[in-house]
Amino acid sequence: MQKYNSKKLLLSIFIIFFSINHLHSAESANLLKVKWSFKGLTGKFDRASLQRGFQVYKEVCSSCHSMQYLSYRNLGEQGGPEFSESEVKAIAASIEIEDGPDSQGEMFIRPGRPSDKFKSPYPNVNASIAANGGAYPPDMSVLVKARPGGSNYIYSVLMGYEEPPSGMTLDDGVYYNKYMIGNKIKMSAPLSEGIVEYSDGTKASVDQMAKDVTTFLSWAAEPELEERHKTGIKVIIYLILLTTLVYLSMKKIWSRIDPEV
Amino acid sequence: MSDHEYTPKSKAGKWFNDRLPLLTLGSHLTDYPTPKNLNYWWTFGGILTFCLLTQIITGIVLAMHYVAHADLAFASVEHIMRDVNFGWLIRYIHSNGASMFFLAVYIHIFRSLFYGSYKSPREVIWIIGLMIYVLMMAAAFMGYVLPWGQMSFWGATVITNLFSAIPLVGESITTWLWGAYSVDNPTLNRFFSLHYLIPFLILGLVVLHIWALHIPGNNNPIGIDIKKPSKDTVPFHPYITIKDAFALLMFMIIFAGFVFFTPNILGHSDNYIPANPLVTPAHIVPEWYLLPFYAILRSVPDKLGGVILMFGAIFILFILPWLDTSKVRSAVFRPIYRQFYWIFVLDVLMLGYMGAMPAEGTYLVLARVGTIYYFLHFIVVMPVVGLMEKTDPIPMSISEPVLTGGAEPSLAKKDNAKI
């Protein structure tokens, strides 16, 4: 009797979790699916792809999209693009940062340092909206986590530019995108063949760039992902070992009372 | 309560214990006679204590880095995730910890419903437990507001607006709750303050909950009163402590699975978009553990009616010990109630699902049916079944077979062994 009821309750719990999973997957049913290297229990970022992705971000996305929660130093940290220290310094130094006030009370311009946050393309949100035909180009720091479907969604939108179906009229500055919610997007197709020239010789096809920049954005949203996966495996192995020991102790202790716990 | 008097062995211990009998308390907790047939559904009390302490400890650390200001809160959470050492781990434990806490509390409550643990003489334990549950919901709701994402802001707007349904003074109360004319910085400040306060209120109630438990002692799967101590009981330590530890570790494995491998699956992606009072999300959805009540709220076309039913759905639980008329505690011996119990479980799960779906069409109809059944279960099923039902024969003790009724003794013994 007891076992029977336990099974039922356990089943209910599974139903709850299944429903949660179901709700999540329902939202992202029609997206393009990519086998990302960073998914799964031992998922890791593809280092070369992250570096290429950063290049796409820097040369294409960053002209409109801010990434205000990242610092240049993050680019050299473990689990990220892992640029060398000198590369990170060079990347930061190529940016002009407004600092101050100095001892005279004046603001001044200096080269960026690794400790600086990514410089935003616009001084504030209103300026970015005004410059982009009334649409706010969202900050990209946590964009992947902020969209149902995550990485697949970002990739799908980048690949989803098409001619609008016949009968659909689009206003000026509005584009048709197969995967964007409502199918209308105010960003023109950002990627085109050869817009970026990769230094590692990889061919900069739209698909390749979309994959690389999505990988980069996924890291930007979850810079702790590799450490999280590695620690997680260790924690779970430790817990399983400890659970086994405690289970054996429990059996031994309870054997004094009743052979059946 | 253990019957024997406790005397500390050391002189210093005796000196201290005469002035503050903490050692006597320790001895009581160690020897506390516990029914030996408790199954794993009874381990969730210990698991819940662990959850509370985890939330308090991670929460205190998070509060050291978090900034409760409408312009800075979102950025400070990202600061925790990126710049604070192991900040991501602490925050993910805290945010998933809330879900694990509710998962455990729901199992704990449904265990109580199945085995009749709320019945005499344990009504006060039940009521204190419900007070903890209500405070938990308040704490979780306010905690969800703190990152100041889109769901934070709009969830806070929806829930605080419920109070505006109160006739005459509703609008004033809502403004008073907000500290402004909409959800704004003062609202965030007070929510943070209360979110920090409530866990300690819960901790105090947990002490009372356990104290009240130690007066009659644990209920048990067959729901009968047992002699304590006797051959039906075991001392709490080491028998129950080791079993609780084992169950807790199993729980922690699942917990760690969420924290390390799918830390955001229980949250809503919109909460990684900073709060924007000018843009309403397409669907405003609370966290999963509040969904059944959200479904009840939305199933009523009238705002005030919805609010009354939603709060009613929670507060009807407080009078449950008096709605249930059955003399038998455990559903193991209640063949009819047992069926209704599982229908009720499915009803609550269905309401939860409806709460996540848009309130329209079939979803709305099912949510209404579910809501009506929810109340019928308590108002009609509980009292009527308790009076009408012919219960199965009850054993005299945990280790002895059934003495009354037609069951064959050997058969009953077999059943007991399984229990």
Architecture overview:
The complex is a heterodimer of chains A (261) and B (419). Chain A has 261 residues and is mostly helical. Chain A contains 7 helices and 4 strands; from the N terminus they run H-H-H-E-E-H-H-E-E-H-H. In chain A, the strands form 2 sheets. In chain A, strands 1-2 form a two-stranded antiparallel sheet. In chain A, helix 2 (47-59) packs across helix 6 (206-221). Chain A is globular and about 80 Å long. The model of chain A has no long low-confidence stretch (mean pLDDT 90). With 419 residues, chain B is an all-alpha fold. In chain B, 63% of the residues lie in helices and 1% in strands. The two termini of chain B are 25 Å apart. Mean pLDDT of chain B is 93; it is low at 403-419. At the A-B interface, helix 1 and helix 7 of A face helix 4, helix 5, helix 10, helix 14 and helix 16 of B.
Spatial order of the strands forming the largest sheet of chain A:
1-2
User: What's the average pLDDT of chain A?
Assistant: 90
Regions with little confidence, pLDDT below 50 for 5+ residues of chain B: 403-419
- Class from helix and strand fractions of chain A: mainly alpha
Biggest interface goes to: A-B, 55 and 57 residues
Rounded radius of gyration of chain A (Å): 25 Å
Give me the number of helical elements of chain B. 16
Main beta-sheet annotation of chain B:
2 strands, antiparallel
Q: How would you sum up the global shape of chain A?
A: globular
With strands numbered from the N-terminus, the spatial order across the biggest sheet of chain B is 1-2
Number of strands of chain B: 2
Distance between the termini of chain B: 25 Å
Give the total of beta strands of chain A.
4
| Helix share bin of chain A | 40-55%
- The helix/strand class of chain B is mainly alpha
Q: What is the mean predicted local confidence, pLDDT of chain B?
A: 93
